[in-house]
Each structure stands twice: as C-alpha cells, then as structure tokens.
Amino acid sequence: MTRALIIGGGVAGTITAIALHEAGHQPVVFEAYDRDSEGVGAFLTLAVNGLDALLPLGLKDVVRSVGFDSPRMSIGLGNGTRLAEFPLGGALPDGTVSQTVLRSDLYVALRDEAARRGIRVEYGKRLIDARQSNTHVSADFADGSHAEGDLLIGADGLRSRVRTIIDPHAPSPRYVQLLNTGGFAEGLDLPDEPGVLNMVFGKRVFFCHVVSPDGRVWWFANPARRTEPTEAELSALTGEDFRQELLDLVAPDRTPAAEIIRATRRIYPAWPTYDFPTVPVWHRGRMVIIGDAAHATSPAAGQGASMAIEDAVTLGKCLRDVPDVPHALAAYEGLRRERVEAVVAAGKRNGDDKVIGPVGRVVRDFFIKRAFSKPFKEDPNAFMWNHRIDWDEKVAI
C-alpha cells in the first residue's frame, strides 16, 4: 500500500484522494487553510466527460445530488440575435447530462464522501518545502509539522508550491486579459428554460445566465482588461461602483443582463483569468502535479473541473497498475499531457472572442453569425466532451 501525501484539499485533491483510496492506496490530504471551503466560490458546469470519469469511483450521483441538469447551451449576440442552441456535450448512456453546481456545494459533497470512506484530511497545513529520496518523500509545513510518504501529489492550484519544488524554473501563469464576476439574482421571471446556459457576446462584455430549478438566476460576466490588474485595482472592483460599471457594460445590449445585475444582492468581487499553455515538468522522482497546478485552462473551455477529475482517475489507475512510483507518474503524464494542452488551447481560442474592441467586435460578430448560419459538420469541442476513461482497463507498463 502506497502512502500518498496530497497537497491541496479542493476538488482536485479530494477526488485524487478518493481515486487512490479506490485503487488500494493510503492518501492523506493536507489543506493550507485552517478551515474548509464551505460557502466559498462561484459556480461551474461539470461536463459529461468529467461525470463519466466519476462513475467508477461511485461519485457521479454524489455530484448530481447537489447540481442541476444543463443539457443545452444557447449562443447569441448583444443585438438580441439568437444564433444557435445545441447540446452541451450530449448525454451519457444513462441519460445524464452536464451539471451546473455551486463550487462550494461540490466541494462539501466530495469532502463528506471522502470522510465517509475514512480518508484523512489535515487543515492549516501550508506546504513550504519537500524533499525526496529513492524510496520516500517528506513534506515540511508552515506550522512546523512534517509528514512522510511514498509520493507527493501537488493538487495545489494555479500558484502551486509543488510545481516550483519540482521545477524551480517552472513558468508563471499566463494572464488571459479577462476578469470574472457573477452572482445570483432573485425575484425575476425570465422566459428561459431552467438549466439552459444563455451565452451572449455583447457589444462590450460577454455575459451568461442560467435559470436554476428554484427560480434564481445564476450568472457570470467576463469584463475585458488588456493589462493584468494589480491587487489594488482588483480590490476596487467591488460594491455599488462595480455594479454600475457592469450595468454600463451591458447597457447597449438587448438582453436581460441589466435586469439580472440589478436583482443581484451581492456581486462577486472580480478575479483575473489565467491559463498555462504548457508546463514543461509535471513530475520528478516521487513528486507530481495535477489539475490547475499542471494545466490551468480558461473557464471559456468549460473543462477545468473535468480535467482535474480525469487527472485524478488516470493517476489512480497508473498507481494501481504500475508498481514503481516514478514510472507510474511518467505513465500518467504520457496519458494526459497531449489532451490537456489541447483543451487549454481551445479555452484560449474561445476566450479570445471575448477580448475585442469596437471595430474588432463588428468583424467578430460577422464571423460568428456566418459560422452559425449552417450546422457544424463536426462540433469543434467534441474531442473534449467525448473523451472516456476505462477504469477497468490496465495501464500498459
């Protein structure tokens, strides 16, 4: 039985722990914060490829219990033109479709399931350093404590400490020139079908909303910022001044965006978007990175959580089937790198259509309308949705 030290107790770390536990190993999760993430974060849509990867771990229904069906996506322009509506990745054989879920609800459901299975989580454990030998790893935490195991997994996100321990020359994240914000509007009576994601390339800002089954309207917006904002600039993007800025951005559009923003009690403070075109080194010896630590992708791909899930399941398979830890980590990278870098590139392309000036917008809208004027011969995103991982198939050594 391999003892795995997992750095990071978010979605990626928790699912990795469950996958390793299912594969017969002993995972221990170390979370930097002295509390969990309950009630923290916005929402996400978990695509069918991520849901399918959860099936052999017994987690698909756990996720569905806290989310709602999002079977389709609608694309439109700020002038009110509805361009197309199409399935959001199709459906699994049992009819399961993509799920929209609060990030904190997803985390709590997974955390509780991990606890039910006897997986240990330690809070207030911020990693400061780690070392390895031919046979084991050791981790040092900011509170003066230490831990030892057979391997160390960095599921510690965009600013991963494990990534820089593995490779001191690792690249920094790339700023994608977009901000994120959103919220939840109440008391509206929109004519939209619940669960359908309504996405609009507005004249000044990209805006998306979805009506939840309880009638609330979940939404996000992507204000463009050409230069990476400082912490001081981000701290100013809050409160009623920020609400008014968003209202000004959506004012030219013939959509319900302004109504939705006004009906939102609390708008999330803005945060910037980053990705990693490539991270050259994913593993060294008995240390490895997964999820955003290895391949953060723009939310425009709609695949961040699903990529982390696929990583976790693939890593679990490799450590189950390849007895030597360094070779298992190499096999994991070999199975994942090409796919995740293609997803990151797709997310960057999708996001680029949101960062555009007035003249460019006219050109963009022309080409978007032309693209949707006739059915696609092949969905350009099909490679993301259609990917499946066979848990029972042995990893080749």
TrEMBL record:
Q: Name one GO molecular function term.
A: FAD binding
Query: Per its UniProt record, what Pfam families does this chain match?
Result: FAD_binding_3
Residue ranges of every copy of the FAD-binding domain listed in the record:
2-345
The answer, when asked if Nucleotide-binding is one of the entry's keywords, is no
Superkingdom of the source species: Bacteria
List the keywords (alphabetical): Monooxygenase, Oxidoreductase
Residues crossing the lipid bilayer are none
Question: What name does the UniProt record give this protein?
Answer: 2-polyprenyl-6-methoxyphenol hydroxylase
UniProt source species: Amycolatopsis tolypomycina
